[in-house]
Write a structure and sequence with these properties.
Blueprint (H helix, E strand, L loop, with lengths): L1 H9 L9 H13 L4 E5 L6 E7 L7 E6 L18 E3 L2 E3 L3 H20 L6 E6 L9 H5 L11 E4 L8 E4 L1 E10 L3 E2 L9 H22 L11 E9 L5 E2 L2 E10 L6 H19 L7 E10 L2 E2 L5 H10 L5 E3 L5 H6 L4 E3 L14 E3 H18 L2
Parallel strand pairs: 3-6, 3-7, 7-17, 8-16
Antiparallel strand pairs: 1-2, 2-6, 4-5, 5-18, 8-15, 9-13, 9-14, 10-12, 11-13
Helix pairs in contact: 1-3, 3-9, 5-6
């Protein structure tokens, strides 16, 4: 399994880059085990999702799903090469070791065990792309389930959960707000409209809305137990001596499954129209505030009596389930009619950071989990 993880980490599959080299490696490995696979390429052909079946063809069976892409390393200070697996003190360091090439490596290492069994129902291997930028890559493949690809009866998404059983997560909505004013010499600011000042007011209001939400609605199953929102990037202006014409900021909401995310965007837009724009336009100069919804990742809530949750609990021996606040592809699988659960090696606190790692003990626990699945499905 370590060798497989080493190979996977060596592929720089940052979401902005192609994942085809990794997919070719996985496909070749599966071919060597006598397992054929089907690709669903991206529209531009630079990426692909992979779907492979071990056992009888047709609907049913258990899907094991992981995404191949990872987040960038630029701007982070690493103690070792992020694309070379490094072992220290029972931990394996490298970009994607935790999120989530560790799970994919465990699944691939378990293929010989699955192949050797006379499975009562199939095991499906799913490797997607662009999960880190809105779970966009898995969607074209999901559209094929039940048509020219089998529809699994249960899906296990191996996101890092410390091998605990996760039956719900929050929804994510991403937005971009563009504030437009007018350029002028900074010595004569009345001739211009400062877009950065307008954007700053909008950012402060977003923080106010977040505080209000935190005080009004909570769900103790989640950590944090409230819907959260934050500005992730902001850019604008040309030079210190020019009144800035434009400023844009990107922001997101991670909302509780029961919340209506449109409430936040509607309130922010109303504040812009009623409060910020009148101040920007007080000298009769045109100004604008435009917010675009960039995309969403649906909340995941397993249905009562979910067979996917029951399966994961039986494999782990867990007496209870948990939730997470990060987003995954689980909600998309659930919405596509596949009962889904999240259970995978690693701690999300190590993901996306410099010196990302997965504990070897976590990978061992995942291998044991998959071995139990093979035993349960074996004749």
């Amino acid at each position: 399994m370590h060798e497989l993880l080493e190979r996977l980490v060596a592929f720089d599959t940052t979401s902005a880059k192609s994942n085809l080299a990794l997919i070719d490696f996985v496909r070749g490995y599966l071919d060597g085990q006598g397992v054929t696979s089907t690709l669903t390429p991206s529209a531009d052909g630079t990426k692909a999702s992979l779907f492979a079946t071990i056992g009888a063809e047709g609907d049913g069976g258990i899907g094991l799903s992981g995404h191949s892409d990872c987040v960038p390393v630029e701007g982070q200070t690493w103690s070792s090469d992020p694309f070379q697996l490094t072992q220290r003190d029972g931990k394996l360091y490298g970009r994607g070791t935790c999120d989530m090439k560790g799970f994919i490596a465990c699944v691939l290492a378990s293929v010989p065990k699955f192949v050797s069994r006379h499975l009562r129902e199939p095991v499906h291997l799913i490797v997607s792309y662009d999960e880190e930028v809105g779970c966009t890559g898995v969607r074209p493949m999901l559209a094929r389930l039940g048509r020219d690809l089998p529809r699994p009866r249960a899906i296990i998404v191996g996101e890092p959960s410390s091998m605990t059983v996760i039956d719900a997560h929050k929804r994510i909505d991403a937005y971009r707000t563009v504030v437009t004013g007018r350029e002028a010499h900074s010595a004569l600011p009345r001739l211009g409209v400062n877009a950065i000042s307008g954007a700053a007011e909008m950012v402060v209001e977003l923080d106010r809305i977040g505080e209000e939400f935190a005080a009004s609605t909570s769900n103790d199953r989640f950590e944090p137990p409230v819907s959260t929102m934050q500005v992730g990037t902001i850019e604008g202006g040309t030079a210190a001596n020019i009144v800035p014409k434009s400023c844009r900021f990107q922001w997101q909401i991670r909302s509780l499954p029961s919340a209506n995310p449109d409430t936040v965007s509607d309130r922010l837009q109303r504040y812009g129209v009623e409060t910020v724009l009148p101040r920007m336009q007080r000298n009769g100069i045109p100004a604008a505030i435009d917010t675009t919804h960039l995309g969403s990742v649906p909340a995941f809530v397993a249905k009562p009596g979910s067979e996917a949750v029951a399966l994961a609990r039986s494999l782990t021996g867990a007496n209870a389930t948990n939730t997470v606040s990060y987003g995954t592809e689980a909600g998309l699988f659930e919405d596509a009619g596949c009962p889904t659960v999240i259970c995978g090696p690693g701690d999300i606190a190590q993901a996306h950071a410099a010196d990302e790692f997965v504990a070897e003990a976590q990978l061992e626990a995942c291998m044991a989990f998959l071995a139990k699945l093979a035993d349960q499905l074996g004749a």
